[in-house]
Design goal:
The complex is a heterodimer of chains A (477) and B (203).
Chain A: H1 7-11, H2 14-22, E1 23-25, E2 32-35, E3 38-42, H3 47-55, E4 66-69, H4 78-81, H5 90-102, E5 105-107, H6 117-124, E6 132-135, E7 149-152, H7 155-164, E8 166-169, E9 173-180, H8 189-200, E10 208-213, H9 215-218, H10 222-230, E11 239-241, H11 246-252, H12 261-272, E12 284-289, E13 296-298, E14 306-308, H13 321-334, E15 349-352, H14 360-370, E16 380-383, H15 388-396, H16 399-406, E17 409-410, E18 431-434, E19 449-452, H17 455-464
Chain B: E1 7-14, H1 21-24, H2 35-41, H3 44-49, E2 65-68, H4 80-87, E3 92-95, H5 100-107, E4 112-115, H6 118-130, E5 135-139, E6 144-147, E7 152-155, H7 160-168, H8 172-177, H9 180-188, H10 194-200
Parallel strand pairs in B: 1-2, 2-3, 3-4
Antiparallel strand pairs in B: 1-5, 5-6, 6-7
Helix pairs in contact in B: 2-4
The structure holds iron/sulfur cluster.
Chain lengths: 477, 203
């Protein structure tokens, strides 16, 4: 179904309600001036934006709404992390200088609040339902799990937001993806995201804001919802959303920047009115049955090139022109032949981390597999927690101990091998089982070959040394 | 920014689906500074791995319009992707669809993301295959893409606001700054998120 909704219809959706309350000005035919409640900045994309601000003699308009951190370029190796600032990566140092110059809040490399920008926003309680949150990073969609309209912006838009706390946007179309049924043990929201793209491709969300709904989404924890919303950008959509509910409020309560006292009550009242009305109409509707989703694994260089763990690599001969050409190029790059079974495929490195899957629940899932077991000979396992807070929790719960005992490297919070710009980099031709979100060519290092999967599948793969089904490791608790 | 006028070029056929921004400019090059550095970074990993890559073929030198496969510019939000394309002499990319953020970033940097229908794309593909040196004209003020030699004229579907900015050489920041009064009003009004109101009040 795909028919344009009326203004009245979109107003009854979660997206429409948030949008309407953030429009500062809508001149006929022009994009809206949209207000941003939170602007997160990181060292990967900020540089030219602040040059533009200096050129125009502009400052940070709203300090309490602007927070920066370092995640992309900071080393995950402890011995490199606490070095002399003079030898830090240029952009990290430059963000530190810029933050000082502009008086901007910064959680620097060794700050107790530091972490991947999409991990710390919700964790600190900065990300709240009904807000508009922007960050010059495409995985800003992650924050949508909180019922926040969150989307990635470009570097020029950083300057717009810093200087005016607003940016120009056109309203998107609405899409609801209903996830029915229940996830089987050993299957996670990451698998749902990959299954959706295996089915519908990587552009189905384009021009839309996706609201994830249905019983399987309601049953997910906030962190699981984050992994799902995180991948909306891979589906072509800048924003994913999940309606706020008790799970959201419980998660937020007591967090550092969450409202307290009377402010909390007022906020809960506000948040409770946000969910889409039962009779809301969406421009596009899609559905998937969670109970049919298996642990997923990618074989190509686009996240939609994914199959269930028991599946085989498809044959370009079964596809039409450009799709076939893309698959042929992908398989050549991946060194995989059509018809190959993925389970049992040997991997060199396993990476558990990134803004998709580096939160405490992800680490707990990995630990259920790794407890009392060892990483296979010839395979390296690197686990990088998403934030200082996740790291502290994992250490306090004994998970870090489990990982180190199993033979894993335990890193300092950073993007690490997800984007390979902090010194962690995959070798050419190497197979990397990864819990990140992109298997693009050379994403994890020139010539490196990425297989995307959930943290539990990654842990099972590390133990076996080759792509492994996590389900046999699920302990019936 | 320079005002965009009509320009013509022969096509660079890059008919690959889902060309992501990590391919356009690998992450290790995003903090490049000079035009030369950005031009060097353009499709760097692909070019290093494949000396026959389309951009390095002698016949493609000096061309400024890419005829791309579907879903060009998907993936990372890096604005360095259009910077690298522009540094590499590219002025327009034609596809059946673009990554949303790439589309916006391009418009901010004078690179035209031209969306055509499947049928129009097919037509351009066959023309480019049969007549690789055919001239294509992009006329932003006139709002058309045309291949005069083959009698093709396609209307551009570029957001009229950005089209206006690109033709006039104005930028979005000027527009936003001209509405500071409305922004102040919004901040003091009822619609603002309760937490944001509290934060602005210093709570
Ligand atoms: S973890 Fe990866 S995807 Fe997430 S913000 Fe960092 S580089 Fe981007």
């Amino acid at each position: 179904m795909s028919a344009p909704t009326t203004d009245e219809a979109y107003r009854r959706t979660l997206y429409g309600k948030i949008w309407d309350r953030h429009v500062v000005l809508q001149e006929p035919g022009l994009p809206a001036i949209l207000y941003a409640d939170v602007h997160l900045v990181h060292e990967g994309t900020f540089l030219q934006a602040f040059e533009l601000l200096r050129e125009r003699n502009l400052n940070v308009r709203r300090h309490p709404l602007t927070v920066s951190t370092t995640d992309h370029f900071v080393p995950s190796r402890r011995d490199l992390r606490f070095q002399d600032p003079a030898t830090m990566p240029y952009v990290v140092k430059s963000l530190m200088d810029t933050a000082e110059e502009f008086g901007m809040t910064l959680y620097g490399p060794n700050d107790r609040r530091q972490g991947i920008v999409h991990v710390i926003g919700p964790e600190l309680g900065l990300t709240q339902p009904g807000m508009v949150l922007v960050c010059a990073d495409s995985h800003t969609s992650t924050h949508g799990a909180m019922g926040t309209l969150a989307f990635g912006i470009g570097t020029t838009e950083i300057a717009h937001t810093v200087a005016t706390q607003t940016l120009l946007q056109r309203r998107q179309k609405t899409m609801r993806v209903t996830v029915d049924g229940r996830l089987a043990p050993g299957v996670f929201s990451k698998d749902v995201a990959l299954a959706l793209m295996a089915e519908y491709g990587t552009a189905f969300g384009r021009g839309h804001v996706i609201e994830f709904a249905g019983p399987a989404v309601r049953a997910m924890s906030i962190e699981a919802r984050m992994s799902l919303c995180n991948m909306s950008i891979e589906m072509g959509s800048r924003s994913g959303l999940v309606a706020p509910d008790e799970v959201t409020f419980d998660y937020l309560h007591g967090r550092e920047f969450a409202p307290a006292g009377e402010d909390w009550d007022r906020a809960v009242e506000y948040w409770s009115a946000l969910p889409s009305e039962p009779d809301a109409v969406f421009d596009t509707e899609l559905a998937i049955d969670a109970s049919t989703v298996a642990p997923m694994i990618t074989y190509g260089t686009s996240p939609g090139m994914a199959v269930g763990i028991d599946g085989t690599v498809p044959d370009p001969a079964d596809l039409a022109d450009e799709e076939a050409a893309a698959l042929t190029t992908a398989l050549e790059y991946m060194g995989l032949r059509p018809g190959t079974r993925l389970a049992g495929k040997k991997v060199d490195t396993v990476f558990i981390g990134s803004c998709t899957n580096s939160r405490i629940e992800d680490l707990r899932a990995a630990a259920t597999v790794l407890r009392g077991r060892s990483v296979a000979a010839g395979t390296a396992l690197k686990i990088v927690p998403g934030s200082q807070e996740v790291k502290r929790m994992a250490e306090a719960e004994g998970l870090a101990e489990v990982f180190v005992q199993a033979g894993a490297q335990w890193g300092e919070p950073s993007c690490s091998l997800c984007v390979a710009v902090n010194g962690d980099v995959g070798g050419s031709g190497e197979y990397i089982a990864s819990t990140s979100n992109r298997n693009f060519q050379s994403r994890q290092g020139p010539g490196a070959r990425t297989l995307l999967m959930s943290p539990m599948t990654a842990a099972a793969t590390a133990v076996q040394g080759s792509v492994a089904d996590p389900r046999p490791f699920v302990t019936s608790a | 920014m320079d005002k965009i006028r009509a320009f013509s070029s022969t096509l660079i056929p890059m008919l690959i689906a889902n060309v992501d921004t990590d391919q356009i400019i690998p992450a290790q090059f995003v903090s490049s500074r000079t035009t030369e550095e950005f031009a060097h970074a353009l499709f760097r990993n692909r070019r290093d791995r494949d000396p026959e890559f389309i951009l390095d073929q002698p016949a493609m030198q000096g061309r400024s319009i890419i005829l791309a496969g579907p879903n060009f510019g998907c993936g990372s939000s890096r604005e360095a992707a259009p910077w690298a394309l522009v540094a590499g002499g590219i002025r327009a990319v034609i596809s059946t669809g673009f990554g949303d953020i790439f589309n916006n970033n391009s418009l901010k940097n004078g690179l035209l993301p031209i969306v055509v229908s499947e049928t129009e794309h097919e037509r351009l593909r066959s023309v480019a295959a049969a007549d690789p040196d055919v001239e294509v004209t992009v006329d932003l003020p006139g709002n058309t893409l045309s291949v005069p030699a083959h009698g093709i004229t396609i209307e551009l579907r570029i957001d009229p606001f950005y089209r206006h900015l690109l033709i006039s050489g104005m930028d979005e920041l000027d527009y936003l700054l001209s509405h500071v009064a409305e922004i102040e009003q919004y901040e003091a009004g009822d619609a603002i998120h309760p937490t944001t109101r509290a934060k602005l009040a210093g709570r």
